[in-house]
Amino acid sequence: MTGRRRPGGMSKTSQRFAKVTQPNGTELTVPQAKDVGTFIYVGDGVQYPKFPTVTLLLDGHHLTEGTIFELEEMRPGHGMGETISVQVAYVRLQVSLFPGKYGQLKRHIYCDPVIPNDEKSDAFAETFGLGDSQ
Fold first, then answer.
1. Is the CB of residue 33 less than 8 Å from the CB of residue 98?
2. Which of 32, 51, 53, 43 is nearest to 98 (CA)?
3. pLDDT tens digits, 1-50
């Protein structure tokens, strides 16, 4: 191959911006963004991180307050395969507006870790002296 390559998004066949024709005939360029995004933050019940733990490119409308679900670690070197149960503490919706009245729905979901039932049972038994006495 001869010549210098163009950086990504700069070729004739790719577009960095969507082009939309307005009703008055003018053409409007709109930044390409997914129309929805779900941002999951896992905190400790008091404080939440500044950046999301997970970003999903879909609307997590089924993740409502009180919902319990599992997060599975899939990054090599970070405990791959481990799961953590979390419960949705609260949900915040945000709409980002772009030129031409186009927008993106952002669903920010703040979660707290859930103690598994077997650990709760052990703590309960230990507190009230119901465990195995040796």
1. yes
2. 32
3. 555 655 555 555 555 666 777 788 888 776 566 678 899 999 987 889 99
